[in-house]
Each structure stands twice: as C-alpha cells, then as structure tokens.
Amino acid sequence: MTQTLVVIGNGMVGHRLVEILRDSSWRIVVFGEESRPAYDRVALSSYVDTWSSADLELTPLTGCELRLGEKAVSVDRERRVVVGASGVEITYDALVLATGSVPFVPPVPGRDLPGCHVYRTIDDLDDIRATVEAADRPGRHSGMVLGGGLLGLEAANALRGMGVSPHVVELAPRLMPIQVDDGGAGLLKRLVEKLDLTVHTGTSASSIERDGTRLIAKLANGLELDLDVVVFSAGIRPRTDLDLGLELGPRGGYLVDAACRTADPRVFAIGECAAVEGVAYGLVAPGYAMAEVVADQLHGGAKTFPGADVSTKLKLLGVDVASFGDAHAQTEGALEVVVNNAVAGTYSKLVVSDDAKTLLGGVLVGDASSYLSLRPLVGKEVPAGLLQPGGAVDVEMPADAQVCSCHAVTKQTITDAIQSGVACDVAELKACTKAGTGCGSCVPMLKKLLTDCGVEQSKALCEHFTYSRAELFEIIRATRITTFTALVEKHGTGRGCDICKPAVASILASLNNGHILGEAQVSLQDTNDKFLANLQRNGTYSVVPRIPGGEITPEKLIVIGEVARDFGLYTKITGGQRIDLFGATVDQLPEIWRRLVDAGFESGHAYGKALRTVKSCVGTTWCRYGVQDSVGLAIELELRYRGLRSPHKLKSAVSGCARECAEARGKDFGVIATENGWNLYVGGNGGFTPRHADLLVSDVDTEELIRIIDRFLMFYIRTADRLQRTSAWLEGLDGGLDHLREVVVDDKLGICAELEAAMESHVSDYADEWRGVLEDPEKLARFTSFVNAPGTPDPTISFRAERGQRVPVQLGIPEVVR
Amino acid sequence: MTVVCDFEVLRPEQGVAALLPDGSQVAVFLTADGSLHALDNIDPFSGAAVLSRGIVGDRGGVPVVVSPVYKQAFELATGKCLDEPAVSVAVHPVRVRDGVVELT
C-alpha cells in the first residue's frame, strides 16, 4: 500500500526534499502557509529589482499534493494526523517538519508601530515597499535596519533598491560579527559606507516613537534617527510554534538525531527548524544536506547528517566577503597571517595551526577569488609559499575536498564524472553531479577541474583558427585586415569553412567595412546574407521589409499586399510585428525589392545575424495605462541599430508600462517604461532556453538609456562567441551582471567612450543593403537561378494551394540512399 | 556538351548553377587554387537545388562545399558527403575551352 509523507513547510528545504522524493513510491502532501509557490529566499533582496515574485520561484513541484495557503495548525501524533487551517485532516506514515525560522525581534519599545517590519518573506518586502511609498518626505527616504549581520546587510541592500538611505545598527562592535573579524569588518564598513549606508556599531535602538508621519529611533549611544521605515533583521530563531510535544534543542529547534529523526520515529525535522544533535543551522546548504538524509532514511537507508560546513562566500552590496573554517582563530595556539591592503580595498586573513603547518580557516573581504581554492584545504597541510607575501593560492585540492557546498559534491565525484567521459563540459557536470546548480559560485572551479583533467576547453573557432571569435575580433580591429584571405593566411590555416567564413564576415561588417556583398566578402556569406533573404526548405526565399516598431501606414500595408499578390507570395505576420513574404525565387528577389524600395521600404535584416526588430506596445499615444511613448522609442531604437551585425541575431522591445505588453523581458535588450523614465533589461531570450532579461539600470532618461544600450551592444559584439545570444553570453560572462554593469555603466575598464564612438560610426555609416544591390549591376547579376539561362526559373520549385495561399510542394527526399 | 559561362565570370570559392538540356542542374565551383569542379546541384538531404549556393572551403585540407540547408559537407573532387559517408552526389566532367566553361 502506498505510504503517505506529510511535509509541513514549503520553503527551500521542504521543496528540496519533495524534489528528491517526487519519483519515489511515497504519496507526498505539502502544507505551505504562504499562498505562493516555494521561492528562493536566499535571493530575497533581488525581489526589489523587478517586484516580480515569479523571478524567485523555484522549479514547480509535480507529483505531490501541494496545499498552498494552508497552515498546519495541529498534529495528533497518536492518530498520526496533521490538521490544516481549513479543517482538512491528513493521515501520515511519516511526517517531516520543515517550518523554517522566524525573525528575531529585539524587545525595543515601539517595535510594533506601523512602519516597523521584519525581513523574511516576499510579503514582508511588499509591506516595506508600501510603507516607503506612503512616506511623505521630499528627497531620499531614510530607513533603519536593526542588525548588521549577513541578513541585515541584505535588508539594507533591499532598502537601497527602494530608494531609501539605510542606517545599519549593530550591537556587536563590528559588521557581520559571526563571519568576519575586526580587520575585515573595518574594511567592509568603509566599502559599504561608500554606498550610502550609515553604519552604527556597538550600539542598539533603545526606543522607537511615532512623530506624525515619521518614526524617531533613539539609539543607546544618544543618537536620534529621523526615519520613514524600520526593518528588524537581527537574526532568526527556529520556528517551533507548532507544538507536537517534542523536545526542543538548547537554543530552540525540534531536537533530532543525526538521522534528523525526533524522539518519535515517524517524525523528522529538517532545515532551520531542526536542532541536529542540539545544533540549529541558519544556512540553506546544511538544510539541503538534511533533506538528503531524510530522503535516504525514507528509502530505508542509513545516511546521517555529516555536520555542516558553515563557510560562506557572498557578495554583499557589491563587496566580496568570505569566511571559512576557524575564521576567528579559536583553536588553541592558532596563528594569524593578515594582509590588509587599504589602498586596494582588500583584506585577507589566514588562520594556521601553531606550527604553521595546517590551514585552519580564514577571512577574505574585498576580493574573495581565492576562497574556492582555500576552503577545501582547511584541516590540510598549508601549501608551500602560501604564507609568503603575495603567496600563490592556486594549489592542488585534495580529492575529498568539497567543491560544491550546496550539494555536497566532492572533487572526486567531479573528476570521476569527467574521467569516465560522462561529462565533458560544465553543463554536463551540472546535469550528472548537481554541482554548480545551487548558488553557482563553484562554476569557475568546475571549469578549472575540466581543464586539469585534460578536457580541452577549446575556444578555437574552428579547424582553421585557434582563436576565439572575440580574439579574432580584436585581431581584425587592430590589424585593420579587410579580407578573409589575408586573415587566414596570416592568422589561420587552410581555406576556411562554413563556420569561420560567416563569422569573419560578421566581424568585418560590425567594423563597418562597406556593403556585405562587396567583392571581398560575398563568398564568405551564408546563403541568407548572400541573397539578403531567408532560405526556405524548397530552395526559395522569404522577404521581410523593415517596419520599425511595428508601426505602418495603410498605404505601405497596401504596397506589401500588392507585391505579395503580384508575385504570388505566401504571407504571414511574424512575432516581431512585421510581415514575412514567402516563396520568392532568387530571380524574383530584385524585382520584389525594387517595388518595396520605391515605396520607401528597406531591408528588415531578417536574414542576418543582426538587429531584427524592436517590438512595441502602443504606449501613451493610445493606451489608457501607458506612462511613456513606447512606439516613439521603439522606432528610434530600431532606426539607430538597424543593420548592426552581431555574433547572433538581436531582438528588442519597448513596453509603455509595467504591464509589459511588448514582452521586453524576453529580448536581448528590453525597455520598460516607468513613471520616471525607462528600465533597461538585458540578456533575455525566448527560443530553446527561455530566460528573463536582467535589470541593468532603472529610471534613466532616453539619452542615458541609448548611451548604455550603445555600450552594451558594442561590448557584446566584441566579446561574445560565434552564434552566442546575449543570454548565454551574460550567463558565461565572468562576474555576470555585476561585471557587465561595472563595464557598461560605471566604465570600470575605461572603454565606454570607444564603444560609443564605434556605435556612432555604425549609425552614421548605415545604408540600406537592398538599395545597395539594386544600384549595382554587378551585385544584381548574382540573382539568377542559372548562369547559362538567366531568367529561367528553377524547374524543381513548384507550389500547391493551401487555405487560399501558395505553399511549396514537398520535395522528394528519398533519393538519399544510406 | 553544355556551355556554362565564360571562365572570367567565375569567382574563386563561389558556385554557379547551370541548367542541362534534360532539365537537370549542375553546380560548378572554382577553388582558390584555380581548379574546377562540377557536382549535382540538388542537395540529397533537403531535395532542394541549392548546392551551388553553399560556402566553399576545406575540411582537413580537402576542398568541400557545404549545403546551405542542413550544412552537410560534400567533397568537391568526389561528391562524397563527409558527414554521411554512405551519401554522395554525382560528379560531372567539366573543362575550360577557349575561355569558356563546359560540361561534357
């Protein structure tokens, strides 16, 4: 008979347990107090970027009964029944408590006043936002975060995202007292104070009072703060308000043994609500490990909780912070080696045993890049040279070292997968070992292990060039080579192929080398670019005139209709708000385009790895809800970037309000109107691997928006791989979105002026490719089916009628004898 | 014998298509070293008459044309498909006489 497992709690850890067990023989019932699906609480502060809870949602659960919005109100262990708020009763064979934790709110007088919040759930953030928006204050809002630990700084970051200047109040003498030492915290304070935070350490709030629309907080050190909002994030406590009559740990939490089992053998507890052998953990990775343990136990296994690595590496407010092992040198006789570089803004401390032979732990602030190689060495011999000034940390990692702490994957597991041939790249490693699928911070280490195992992470474009596309781009830019022949003779081998030739043609086009069908370039082009049309399965082509922003006059619409009718072209509306005309033979293309160009149309570049369309909604002109002129901006963007050749196609859209009717977040660059200007999103994609675009900048005016798009596009064009869309490029970019922002917004590399100049030169050099063909007899001459019978159509092409239009007769393919 | 075109019309590494009296089609290519090749124009994988529009290059030094439809490579000298060894296209004799390209 099927046994029933009831899971109380639909947080990250409960969700993980169900994910592991969903294909098992257990019937699973989940009680979730929140009405929304499980979401990534670790990334909570990013909710303020988009205010879309969908962005945080975890993989939807299948194969279980999910009772969202139903709190479990009581458990009768005698009858083995869980009672929900609606009165529903579920009988269990096994029960897992995954109730998580509750924020700790210090007993400050006034803590229950309106405007005082905790920081734990999406609803909390919505409430904080409502308070901030209701605050009646000219200029920037002011807020206080009580708690200067990891959570407190996260909360401060969320407040900044809402336009609030936060005061951070921490009782301990330093920020992040659990993870970081005095030296590291000093640097951290200096770095975050540059970001509009005010830090008050060694003090606490003694009272909060309401004064009209404001809140006044009095600090123990005598300071008074005038505030709009207060957020408590001074730590968490295991949530055990569901009383099962079970013993609790010394610091709270359902007391469980190493198998995560309570004194009742049918009842388990996992995650932040559990006290494993008395110890509660407030991190997600140990919670996941507990979920694994319980899943194993439910299958009759004997797995136990291995103890948790509470090492942390994170980026708080853009500052790298890492702490691992015995970070506070509490081991007897432990020695500390500290390098504090106030100029560079980096701090590192290594803790070693009294004989300086064993690495015990460390703290890194400002630059935590060595964390991944150092953390696995804890408890192992200190590598030679590590303790020297500027000592190398690129050292051999032991086989049993944990590479992915989210999923407890060791180096051995990963190298086994690589050496047995199961995984040859990062994506395959993720699929077969789960490493890198949690927080993702170990992905660079996965790449390194692949290289160490001799898997060539070749970036060679093809057999003719050992360079990557980005390197070839720089070679062509620097040497000003304009022909493929010169390039392959000097920097490659052989005669090229269908991979490198179009890639080089695209680079030459991005660098403004004239018409793409010029004598030196035409033989490099794929058939689509060669005939400036899209090849279809029967050897005919389709034609897409540009319709900027999707706006078109009736007269022009009639011209398209007449051309389609006169040439017998199948007509279809595209997803990019334009019209595709199918079934043209190469001989017909110039005649079709002469009619279109005469009527004022130009190439839509539907055939090119180039800007396709900038889709738009109708915006303020017509829409009752629009807040900006989305059509006007879409047309401006499309006309600016038309003809821009890039590593892959580029799609864009502009929405006139947050309802997002233009689907801008599915585009390579998407713009959404706000009350104050525009939000720019980048790296979105539909297609095979859909991805929502990430917010790059918000509330910018049109001029600033265009400047940043110019830089973004040019940076992508210069550095992406061949046929790599912006989404995959951004995913693979070292440093990700933060790095992109540093380059194209903050101009960290000092290249923005050059990127802008490159775009200006594209804009001023733009000319319609089809007009260029029609005006040049030599280019026109290529548009014939047969060199010995110009004007004779290809006899293999024939059509039949379907729903009133011409469609191709499928060609006989059985000639292929295998 | 079918006349294709004047030799000077050909461009290195670009194909042209010629129509034969029986209605069949031949793709003619001039490689960078000056040699001429002629293959059936119909791509056996798609059935479309498009091989003359493929990109000409080399695979491991062997001159090839790559079908523009599904990107299989065909050896110019033999018509053999390098991606599916069991598949090939017919090779036609081609020559230049008095500056004119002819299929014989």
TrEMBL record, chain A:
<dbReference type="GO" id="GO:0046872">
    <property type="term" value="F:metal ion binding"/>
</dbReference>
<dbReference type="InterPro" id="IPR017121">
    <property type="entry name" value="Nitrite_Rdtase_lsu"/>
</dbReference>
<feature type="binding site">
    <location>
        <position position="657"/>
    </location>
    <ligand>
        <name>[4Fe-4S] cluster</name>
    </ligand>
</feature>
<dbReference type="InterPro" id="IPR012744">
    <property type="entry name" value="Nitri_red_NirB"/>
</dbReference>
<dbReference type="Pfam" id="PF03460">
    <property type="entry name" value="NIR_SIR_ferr"/>
</dbReference>
<keyword id="KW-0883">Thioether bond</keyword>
<dbReference type="InterPro" id="IPR041854">
    <property type="entry name" value="BFD-like_2Fe2S-bd_dom_sf"/>
</dbReference>
<feature type="binding site">
    <location>
        <position position="617"/>
    </location>
    <ligand>
        <name>[4Fe-4S] cluster</name>
    </ligand>
</feature>
<keyword id="KW-0285">Flavoprotein</keyword>
<dbReference type="GO" id="GO:0051537">
    <property type="term" value="F:2 iron, 2 sulfur cluster binding"/>
</dbReference>
<dbReference type="InterPro" id="IPR006067">
    <property type="entry name" value="NO2/SO3_Rdtase_4Fe4S_dom"/>
</dbReference>
<feature type="binding site" description="axial binding residue">
    <location>
        <position position="661"/>
    </location>
    <ligand>
        <name>siroheme</name>
    </ligand>
</feature>
<keyword id="KW-0004">4Fe-4S</keyword>
<dbReference type="InterPro" id="IPR045854">
    <property type="entry name" value="NO2/SO3_Rdtase_4Fe4S_sf"/>
</dbReference>
<keyword id="KW-0274">FAD</keyword>
<dbReference type="InterPro" id="IPR023753">
    <property type="entry name" value="FAD/NAD-binding_dom"/>
</dbReference>
<keyword id="KW-0560">Oxidoreductase</keyword>
<dbReference type="GO" id="GO:0050660">
    <property type="term" value="F:flavin adenine dinucleotide binding"/>
</dbReference>
<dbReference type="Pfam" id="PF04324">
    <property type="entry name" value="Fer2_BFD"/>
</dbReference>
<dbReference type="InterPro" id="IPR052034">
    <property type="entry name" value="NasD-like"/>
</dbReference>
<feature type="domain" description="Nitrite/sulphite reductase 4Fe-4S">
    <location>
        <begin position="608"/>
        <end position="748"/>
    </location>
</feature>
<dbReference type="InterPro" id="IPR007419">
    <property type="entry name" value="BFD-like_2Fe2S-bd_dom"/>
</dbReference>
From TrEMBL, chain B:
<dbReference type="GO" id="GO:0016705">
    <property type="term" value="F:oxidoreductase activity, acting on paired donors, with incorporation or reduction of molecular oxygen"/>
</dbReference>
<keyword id="KW-0560">Oxidoreductase</keyword>
<dbReference type="GO" id="GO:0046872">
    <property type="term" value="F:metal ion binding"/>
</dbReference>
<feature type="domain" description="Rieske">
    <location>
        <begin position="2"/>
        <end position="103"/>
    </location>
</feature>
<keyword id="KW-0411">Iron-sulfur</keyword>
<dbReference type="InterPro" id="IPR017941">
    <property type="entry name" value="Rieske_2Fe-2S"/>
</dbReference>
<dbReference type="InterPro" id="IPR036922">
    <property type="entry name" value="Rieske_2Fe-2S_sf"/>
</dbReference>
<protein>
    <recommendedName>
        <fullName>Rieske domain-containing protein</fullName>
    </recommendedName>
</protein>
<dbReference type="InterPro" id="IPR012748">
    <property type="entry name" value="Rieske-like_NirD"/>
</dbReference>
<keyword id="KW-0534">Nitrate assimilation</keyword>
<dbReference type="Pfam" id="PF13806">
    <property type="entry name" value="Rieske_2"/>
</dbReference>
<dbReference type="GO" id="GO:0004497">
    <property type="term" value="F:monooxygenase activity"/>
</dbReference>
<keyword id="KW-0408">Iron</keyword>
<dbReference type="GO" id="GO:0008942">
    <property type="term" value="F:nitrite reductase [NAD(P)H] activity"/>
</dbReference>
<keyword id="KW-0479">Metal-binding</keyword>
<dbReference type="GO" id="GO:0051537">
    <property type="term" value="F:2 iron, 2 sulfur cluster binding"/>
</dbReference>
<keyword id="KW-0001">2Fe-2S</keyword>
<dbReference type="InterPro" id="IPR017881">
    <property type="entry name" value="NirD"/>
</dbReference>
<dbReference type="GO" id="GO:0042128">
    <property type="term" value="P:nitrate assimilation"/>
</dbReference>
